[in-house]
Each structure stands twice: as C-alpha cells, then as structure tokens.
Amino acid sequence: MGRRRAATPASGVTASLCIALLSTTTSALWGQKSSEIAVSDEENPPSSSSSSSFNNYHQVNTEPQAGQNVNLLGQPTYGVDVSFPIHHIPISDNYAWLPHNVDPANNPTPPQYVGMPVQYLGNRRAEYDRMIKACEDHYGGSSTFSVCKTTEEDRVEMSIRQPSSMQNYTELGFKKIRAPREVWERVKKFWEENKDRKYWKSENWPRGNTYTNHWEAPTYMVSVEDTSLRGAGNNLKRHIWDAARDTIQEWTGEELTDCSLYGIRVYTEGSVLATHVDRMPLVSSAILNVDQDVDEPWPIEVYGHDGNAYNITMEPGDMVLYESHSLLHGRPFPLKGRFYANIFIHFEPTGHSLRHEAHEAALQASRGKQDNHPHGGHEAEMSDGLPPYIKRGTIEEERWKRSHPGKKKSSAEKDSFTTGSTPAHVAAQTGDVEQLNSVIETMAHLLDAKDVNGWTPLHEGARGGHESVVRLLVNKGASINERNTEGATPLYWSIKQNGVDHPVSQFLMELGALNIGPDL
Ligand SMILES: *[C@@H]1O[C@H](CO)[C@@H](O)[C@H](O)[C@H]1NC(C)=O
Ligand SMILES: *[C@@H]1O[C@H](CO)[C@@H](O)[C@H](O)[C@H]1NC(C)=O
C-alpha cells in the first residue's frame, strides 16, 4: 500500500476545494512507451460573447476524424484516457491511424490495445510523462516509491470506483449558464477589491498532490474566509450560497444544503487540473469564472453521463453547474495566458426531492385526494442514514456503511444524519477520556468511525488538543492517517488548531503521522 510520507507542517493558506485523495492504491500500470506523432494544433479564437447558447460551450473548428464520434455540442469527442489518464495510467496510445483501427476487418487488434480507447489527440502520453517527471523532480521519487505516482493511482482508482455508485439528478450532468446576478455581483465586488496580486496567497498543496501541477504552475487563493481581505467573511459566504442555491436546486430538482466554499482560486500559465470526481459530500456544484487573462479559452473538460468528453469554455460571469461527485471534470490542456480565476460553490442534496413534491402536488390536485405518500418527498426515506446520492447495492454503499457502523436513522434522529457523530466522537471532542475508554471497550467498532464529514474520533481529539484522548485512541489501535471528506488528517488539524509545538502535534509527528490538508 503506497503510503504518503509525512509532509513538513503546512503553513499559510492551504489548498481548498475538497477533492478526493484516497489512501488505497490500484495496480495501475506505469508503462513508459512513448510515440511518435505531433498534436495537430487547431486553436479556437477566444470567444467574446458571453451568451449561454448551446453552441457557445466551446467554439470548435475541428472536423471529426474517421471513426470519431461527435458529442451533443457537435464537438469531435473521445473516451477516457485520451486527453488525460482517467481510468488507466498512462494515456491511450491506441492511435486512430494504427492498422487495426483503420482497417479492423483485416487487422486483428494487438493485445496491448484491446479495450483501449482510440487516441485522437496525438501524443498526449509524452506530455503527461513530462508532467509526472517534473513532480518527481520536485518531490522526489524512486523506482520503488513515488509520492506523485501514488497520488495519481489514488485519483484514478476513485475515478473508476465512485461515479458508478452515484445517484445522478440530471440527464447529462452539467449545464452552462450566466451566473445569477446576485452571485455574480457579490463575487465580482469581492474580486475587484482584492484582485491585486499582493492579496493572492500561495496555495500550500500537500506533498506529492497531483491535482494541479503546482510545482511548475503555482496556484493562488483569494479566500472568502480570509478576514484580512475587504468584504470577506461569513456574511459574504452566506450571500453567495443563498444566491446560488436556488439556481442549482432548480437544475437538479433536489433540496440542497451548503457544503463548501473557499474562495477564488487563481491558476497561472501552464496550469493543468487533473480530471477527477469530487469527494462526497461535494455533490451539486458550480464553477464561476471570475476573471481571466488568457491567450485562448481554457476549457474545462467533462465526461457527460453519456460517456462523451465535452469542452466547456467560460467567460467571466459564466457559471457551469455540474454533478461533481459523478461527473469527471478537469482541465487537462495547459493554460495559455497569465491567469484564470474561478470560484467553486458546493452543495449536498438533503434527500428531499423538489420535483417529487411538485409532481405529487400536481397528482394530488388532479386526483382531488390525499395519497399515502408523505409530504416532503423523502421517497428514499432511509433507515440507515445512507446519503441519498449513494446508490443502494453499490460498492460505495459498502464503504459508507463500513465507516458509519451501527448507524440507524429514524425520523426522530434527523440530527444524527447531519453529523453522524458517535458517542466516541463526542467523548473525544470533549476530552472525556474515561467516557471514551468505556465507549471503545464496549463498542470497539467506533474506534475509527467516521461522521458525515469523514471525521474520526482521532480527528476530534487532535483538533481539540486532548493529549490523553489522542494517546488512548492510538494505543487502542486507531488509524492515525484517516482523511476526512476534505482530505485532511488528524495531524493537519492538530497543527492548524494547536500549533506544531503542541504535545498532540508532537506526539503524532513522532509516530510518523501525515500532515495532509484539504485537497483542492
Ligand atoms: C451517474 O453518472 C455516472 C457518471 O456519468 C455514471 O457512471 C453512473 O452510472 C450514473 N448513475 C446512474 C444511477 O445512472
Ligand atoms: C478540447 O480542447 C482541446 C484543446 O483545444 C482539444 O484538443 C480537444 O479535442 C477538445 N475536446 C473536445 C471534446 O472538444
């Protein structure tokens, strides 16, 4: 199992936007074959229009190649592993011009290409290999262990596993619109007041994190949480959330609760964002283009629920709504220009379907009588608290249940649905070591139990600076590097909350615990 090594304590602003990194690995292959052909370079003129019409997602002037499909936007499209490694590492080198693709009737497919998507974009593999090499030059990497490759394997593993277990709420999974006026005005004002480079804070990415190629193209954050900035703070966050919620609810038909909102990320020249799905509970999301200085549009590439790749380009004030838990999304083509600033707004569905309610109301009106559906449309009323966006009978249901043992939900227990805290969490949080001891004695399975935000009792004890709690949990065998839904470890929280020199931080560091902050 590829374990990340302890990172040096993070300081300053940490990477925000919760994106997943798992600690499991796949046996993905790291072939080094590299070939041959040059990428044909048909670039699209920057579009000056900001209309949200269907054909303005990305101006394309390329013709599909022989055998290449066209997506619903008329773009010549392709599958996964073509622009970037998504389900396998490395990128496909199953070029369209190879004999078995040109004339399959007379050329059997060589075994190494069976099942490999056709590569239409040229030698993307060489570009990717260069990126990973640069990561290893920065973070170190040997033939036996490479933190960069390990995080890549985690990303790919999650991209395969998570989407198929997810409940989706829209047909295609994404939609481009103009941002609601209220959202755009607030964000724009905040940006205008703080866009001077002196306010950009370097994002401090966990060691070996490959979601962005930050080692060669640094990213910055203008955080709405940084109260030293004009207009920042909870008030602004609340306004942005409130203003965005209706729009996204209307799109998904689901009632939503706020999930995460960090600030404006600024990408710089050469930036790449690895294609990924977000860690739950970041489910229903929006990206808003705030500002850019680019030589050509920098598309976000998504894989629609129809399996096709789509490019979406955005002008300032454009917003892309997307189902970030199931929709693969990334920016695999390096940014050409000075900077690109965008903000991410994430929500979580509550399980209350607005469509259902409207539908039921209409039905009842037409029938002129009550039927036996309760109001509120909890059609998937669950006895075990499984979040509504995880499909039953899937691998994610299994995983969720493992990390939420013994969780039962009755209507009277709604609160435990929102926190998922166990008695072990409560005792750890309050520093009640005796209570914690007796809880663990009787309910050993709560040792590493996760609440709805992925916090374990050790996270709680570490954040709270309760040394005896942390020692007890560790002695009982608690896993020291669990990552919460933001991706953060207990040590990260201890350092953030109590400082590096605090006994809890020191104790965890002596154990070799990892200091990993929120991913993205
Ligand atoms: C949801 O979307 C993902 C990605 O497009 C897909 O793999 C999955 O099968 C979809 N879920 C359902 C229930 O159709
Ligand atoms: C997306 O844009 C890139 C870079 O311009 C291009 O190579 C690729 O073919 C486009 N993909 C789609 C689906 O339009």
TrEMBL record:
InterPro entries, alphabetized: Ankyrin_rpt, Ankyrin_rpt-contain_sf
Chain intervals with Basic and acidic residues compositional bias: 368-381
SUPFAM superfamilies assigned to the protein according to its UniProt record, in alphabetical order: Ankyrin repeat (SSF48403)
Keywords recorded for this protein, A-Z: ANK repeat, Repeat, Signal
Gene3D superfamilies the record matches: Ankyrin repeat-containing domain (1.25.40.20)
Keyword Repeat: yes
Signal sequence region: 1-28
Intervals holding ANK repeats: 453-485
Annotated region (Disordered), positions in chain: 38-59, 359-430
PANTHER family on file: ANKYRIN REPEAT DOMAIN-CONTAINING PROTEIN 39-RELATED, BRCA1-ASSOCIATED RING DOMAIN PROTEIN 1
Protein name (Swiss-Prot/TrEMBL): Uncharacterized protein
Species this chain originates from: Cyclostephanos tholiformis
